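Structure ticket #2291
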Amino acid sequence: MKFATLNSAGEEVAFSYGDLYFREPLSQGERLTIGPSASHVDLMLTLASTWPTHQYYILYVLLNSQSGVLPGRYQSPLIESFEDLQVFFYTFERFLESDGRHHIWISSPANEGTLVYDQHNVIFAYGDLSSYEAVLRERGFRQQEFWFPSPHCHSYPSSHVTDEESLLAHLDWQYSPLQEGDEYG
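Resolution: structure written out below.
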């Protein structure tokens, strides 16, 4: 359980947005804010597959480490194919979808889009929003505004320490410190 809210007895219960999305205005343009109920990794890969050029970067933003590595931003080398992107994400799918210590981004070096899967189980999508909306409608998503529940909590299972270590050993990451805005409520 990556992301939870509290029930009336004060117990943590998994939280789901229920397959919703909406266009969110930004200071320049807009993005899609997407609340999948499950299969976040699969949805991210499907959205990334809509980009004409199949080369990618991954940014792994580690907010809280239990393995002793420095929290920070870990930038991948260029991922040369969609198949290689799939291998990485499907290898670490369980960890990415069940642990709240991180955000993970997929971006296009050709500026075709950026997808941010954050620790609140939300995907922020930048790029060809109409193309993304077609994918979401095909999957039964409804257009409706939503926000993170309050209060909420993030899970950092100690059993995932080896997953964190394996993910960070999988690629030749370039490290940089966390930036303002990486950690938010």
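Closing remark: The radius of gyration is 16 Å.
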